[in-house]
Specification:
It comes from Pseudomonas aeruginosa. About 40% of the residues lie in helices and about 25% in strands. It has about 375 residues and is of the alpha+beta class.
Length: about 375
Amino acid sequence: MQRIGDLASALLSRHASLSLEDMSGLILEHKDKYGCDESHIPWILRCFVAKGMIIPTLKKGSVTLTLAPTYKARENQRKFSATIAGELESLSQRVRYIIDHGPTVGTYRENLLQNSLRKHLPERYHIATGFIYGLKKQIDLLIYDRIDYAPLFREGDLVIVPQESVRAVIEVKTNLTTDNLRSALECLHLVSLFDDKQPPFFKGIFAFESDLAKDKLYKTIADFYTNYHAQAQGAPGELICSPFQHLTCMCVDKKAFAFTKYRRNENQRLTPHLYSKQSVTELESQSSFFIQSLLSYLKHGGMKPFKIDYMDQMLGEDTYTTKIKDLRHGDDSWGAYFAVDEGDEDQVYIDEMESLILSAQNWIEGYDNFGAA
């Protein structure tokens, strides 16, 4: 019930006031998440009125609900979590007013994102543009451990670093199109071959804008990994054959956010799934989601596991997640499962892969230190 109360608070903050019927309808849109039906909603709302969270007003036979002043501070925290997008938007548009040269705007925005992310990074890590040693492809933004590893080359913010030092790789796009989204995914696939997965590093795409609908963006990502027939005909795309050999998350500022997470399928095999995340009340939280996801990969040592979920705590029930697709849909014989299916390995090989996936995912989500039993 507390989670529904948090959602009700967010809705009233967004709409200022709602009729009892409208509030019930908006909550029911998420009934599967909370396990409630239409008959429960009026009774739950009465509890919030008794608690002093919601103020009801009877006018012309209709009940109108508003948020109590004492609960508005909670909503200010929620709005704060979405201010990163506003900062990036205002700064990135400034150069557009005086110049329309695409490469210059792209470089400026890349530097803008780099400076914005630098404010949030732990001191251990450095952000730059450059190369992973052994890989010829230049990385737009590269985050590496500068305490335990020295770059092989550094001149300003151009670096060449050993692959063991890498903690995050980010492809930056001014305007995300179908073609450059696919090329960014190709780049991340290539980069993933240098990931020792101890633990895995972050592989992200950040775009300042896109003319594509968010559902089209999500479908392009899903098709890149799962449209096996098109890949066989030479279309862009890569089959996921190893854990974490894929995108971590994609963000279009103020528009779209998608991420990957491992779940067991109907055969109880772990497979990577693609999800979207968004705000119930249309807060522009996408950049905040991106930074939180990035920070969850930038943890080092420590006696206790810890969750980097400050944005989730602030946003609360205003955020909801939607499954887009199993990225091994129709063929879960991958990685260790494939080796065992082919008779090349035994069950121990599967146990080792599953242990790696679950340990890494628990570490990312802040439940355990990496490798903890």
